[in-house]
Amino acid sequence: MIDLHLHSTFSDGSFTPEQLVAEAKKIGLSAIALTDHDNIGGVPSFLEACARYAIRGVPGVEISVDYPKGTMHILGYFIDFKSPKLLQRVEELKAGRARRNTEILKKLNNLGMPLTMAEISSFAGGDNVGRLHFAQALQARGYVTSIQDAFERYLAKGKSGYAERKRFTARHGIEMILQADGVPALSHPFTLELAPKELENLVKELAGTGLQGIEVYYPQHNAGRTRQYLNLAKKFKLVATGGTDFHGSPMPDLKIGRGFGSLSVPDSVMTELDARRCGKPEGGRQNAETTAT
Predict the structure, then answer these.
(1) Taking the complete model, does pTM exceed 0.70, yes or no?
(2) pLDDT of 208-231, one tens digit each?
(3) Domains plus CATH for the chain?
(4) Residues paired with residue 246 on neighbouring β-strands, in sequence order
(5) Residue 93 near residue 123 (C-beta atoms within 8 A)
(6) For residue range 35-67, what is the model confidence (pLDDT) as tens digits?
(7) Which of 64, 65, 74, 280 shows a CA-CA span of 20 to 30 A to 89?
């Protein structure tokens, strides 16, 4: 059993990288990936812990990219986390996130909720404050009833407390991962809020620019979504990846490895990802790597 979508205190999770590995070992996972949002700072300690616990660790990242409808994230597996170009791009994203956080705080203050950045940062285990930490602070103050309520009322795209930040285009996000010797995959496709044909057209376009996988096995994918995304993976020769998107205490019902209880990511996913990693690309990866800038 494997889990290729985990978040730590280096983004918006409540577990340190070491705690993630210990939990994965306890429940018998054979491979896990650390995929923090726009942050690779936790990867070294994560890989060290995986070596100690004899679990296969996949160095990863989840890049937020620009898309006009819904939310798009690109997962990167087997990244070279020491790549100077990748580190530079990640720092650009972190700087954009910091500017966005200042704008969100200003908007919430103007809405009559006098939070401070120190207060919000206290909910983040690292230096990567995100909207989830704002939601936790709002809940702690009693301004909202839950994290979901915070997003629905203030923090979701288009709401009164939302602010945009620097994001790369989907093409640049994919190239960024490829240039770091990684395998890019489209994360939780349903968050794009696209009709089936629109999503198919998008996946076709992304596969042409180097996309190598699509997240099929995911806690919030019902049977219909899973079939739809599996068919897209087969049609465009993509790896059908999967994981829980585990965050820890912010989402206490979601468990490492099993999601809400029934998730099971096939071990064969690792074999397929290895094939893409080891110079046996299908689809558009070879072309994308030669044209990446």
Answers:
(1) yes
(2) 999 999 999 999 999 999 999 999
(3) 2-81+181-291 (3.20.20.140)
(4) 6
(5) no
(6) 999 999 999 999 999 999 999 999 999 999 998
(7) 280
Instruction: Indicate the helix (H) or strand (E) that contains 273.
Output: helix 268-277
User: What DSSP element (H or E) covers 240?
Assistant: strand 239-242
Evaluate whether 1 touches 28 at the Cβ level (below 8 Å).
yes
Average pLDDT (244-268) is 94
DSSP string, 15-73: S-HHHHHHHHHHHT-SEEEE--BT--TTHHHHHHHHHHHT-EEEEEEEEEEE-SSS-EE
Cα gap 49→102, rounded to integer Å: 34
Length of the chain: 293
According to the model, what pLDDT value does residue 166 have? 78
CB 269 within 8 A of CB 6: no
What number of other Cβ atoms are within 10 A of residue 166's Cβ? 15
Residue carrying structure tokens 């620019």: 209
